[in-house]
Amino acid sequence: MKKFFWKVLTSIFPNAKILQTNKQTNKQTNKRDVLPKLATDNDNFGAVESKHYVAIFKKEGKFLTVFNEDGLIFNFLFGYKVLTNLKCGFPNNILEKNLKILEESNISYKIFDKDKEVAFKDFSSKNNYDDILEKSINYSSLNNRLDLLIKRVKFASPEKLENILKYIQECLK
Known about the structure:
With 173 residues, the protein is α+β, with helices and mostly antiparallel strands.
């Protein structure tokens, strides 16, 4: 039942319009337009539109970071600890090893350095991102799955949120 419930919820959210309010101008912008900048900001990076690649971010220093679903994938593939905000970090010096494993697994990836995309490997039709994500979610702890779900629900449209609530209420009868 939990697996079915998770699939229903994840099928509802991939195309949800994600908006963020710019604190300085009070304008709403589509997160997709500013993803590399927001993705490195733990407080603002929430659910984003469906993607089919691992996004790896480098800010300052010697560590790289992945967020949300990608954190679950890195936990599954490499055994990295997932923090409560669904973030995984790893040292810069093992990036090549991790990329080799992603490539052997046919998982597309993008690397962002600060706000710029610096590398992209696309496996197109051979891409196993979705399969590995499903395995990662099943492997992940209940708390990590719940954290991810809460982040995605916060950004749902009112219509989709209403459908979700109706479904949950029906399941709990």
